[in-house]
């Protein structure tokens, strides 16, 4: 597993409603799990033998940023060639994956209305891309 050498981080825009922050975070980390299955550990089991789904085998750090800092972090993450998942404002108005992808595809990179990103990559590269951001309270 890549847990010790890599890092997973999510950045959500600080002006979102609480439900939106949680929703954005959940959607974004699903992209990391899908692209990097090695980040997911083994299934869980309680003492009664009940099995549960596996989860990430490393921490997921969640940060907050204003719109400008989020755009800057997005640029830095792409420049460092980190794996990036995006969630844009338009995705709050769609209700399926096909429309979600079409909404992102319709906007050039520099004009995306970002409300959140997730990044995965080497610890140092992720730290540098997120430098200066505050952890979500």
Folded structure, characterized:
The chain has 4 helices and 7 strands, in the order E-H-E-E-E-H-E-H-E-H-E. The chain has a 5-stranded mixed sheet with strand order 5-6-1-4-7, sandwiched between helices. A two-stranded antiparallel ribbon has the order 2-3. Helix 2 (67-79) runs antiparallel to helix 4 (123-129). The mean pLDDT is 95. 34% of the residues lie in helices and 26% in strands.
Summarize the model shown.
The chain is globular and about 50 Å long.
- Helix/strand order, N-terminal first: EHEEEHEHEHE
What top-tier CATH class fits best? Alpha Beta
Low-confidence segments, ≥5 residues, pLDDT <50? Answer: none
Structural class: alpha+beta
**Morphology call:** globular
First-to-last CA distance: 29 Å
CATH topology: Bit1
Instruction: Give the C-alpha Rg.
Output: 15 Å
Strand order of the largest sheet: 5-6-1-4-7
Biggest β-sheet description: 5 strands, mixed
| Assembly of the depicted chains | single chain
Q: Give helix % range.
A: 25-40%
Beta-strand percentage range = 25-35%
CATH architecture: 3-Layer(aba) Sandwich
């Amino acid at each position: 597993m890549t847990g010790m050498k890599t890092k997973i981080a999510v950045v959500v825009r600080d002006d979102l409603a609480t439900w939106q922050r949680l929703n954005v975070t959940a959607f974004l980390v699903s992209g990391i799990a899908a692209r990097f299955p090695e980040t997911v550990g083994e299934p869980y089991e309680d003492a009664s033998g009940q099995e549960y789904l596996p989860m990430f085998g490393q921490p997921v750090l969640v940060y907050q940023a204003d719109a400008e800092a989020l755009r800057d972090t997005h640029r830095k993450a792409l420049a460092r060639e980190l794996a990036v998942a995006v969630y844009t404002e338009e995705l709050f108005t769609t209700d399926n994956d096909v429309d979600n992808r079409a909404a992102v595809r319709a906007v050039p990179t520099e004009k995306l209305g970002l409300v959140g990103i997730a990044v995965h990559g080497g610890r140092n590269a992720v730290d540098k891309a997120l430098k200066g951001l505050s952890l979500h309270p």
